[in-house]
Amino acid sequence: MPFIEVIDQDATEEMRELATSGMTEALCDAFKIKPEIVTCYYFSAPNYSYGHASKFGRNAENFRMFIKVHAFPRPQASKNEAARTMTEAVERAYGIDPKHIIVYFCDREPSDAFHAGLPSA
């Protein structure tokens, strides 16, 4: 914990490798944590798996890349910094406009996280 879920489209292995490095560094700097506890998961959404603004697939104007950060609660300033620097890292890795990169924080209480069947709290 924390872990990062990324929904991307047409990503190369190199893009994901660069994004993993950049997002992990950004999150660690903002949250003051070690990279050994950060995990990234990638899910690809082909054009037939995406809709936005009532338009579907290839007819959708722009693909919005969605990033969810599951972590124990942090101060808003730390989240602000993490979102900004993670967006910059993803922009560099994928070469997409940052306005199409959406970051959500999904706070989890330590009592809601279990490792090897044991509570983290």
What this model shows, in words?
With 121 residues, the protein is of the alpha/beta class. It has one domain (12-116): Macrophage Migration Inhibitory Factor (2-Layer Sandwich), CATH 3.30.429.10. It contains 2 helices and 8 strands. The protein has helices at 13-31, 76-94; strands at residues 3-8, 39-44, 51-52, 55-56, 65-71, 101-107, 114-115, 118-119. Strands 2-1-5-6 form a 4-stranded mixed beta sheet, covered by helices on one side. A hairpin with a 2-residue loop joins β7 (114-115) and β8. α1 (13-31) packs antiparallel against α2 (76-94). The radius of gyration is 15 Å and the shape is globular. This is Phenylpyruvate tautomerase PptA (4-oxalocrotonate tautomerase family). InterPro entries: Tautomerase/MIF_sf.
Explain the layout of strands and helices.
Elements: E1 3-8, H1 13-31, E2 39-44, E3 51-52, E4 55-56, E5 65-71, H2 76-94, E6 101-107, E7 114-115, E8 118-119
Parallel strand pairs: 1-2, 5-6
Antiparallel strand pairs: 1-5, 3-4, 7-8
Helix pairs in contact: 1-2
What is this structure, in a nutshell?
The protein has 121 residues and is of the alpha/beta class.
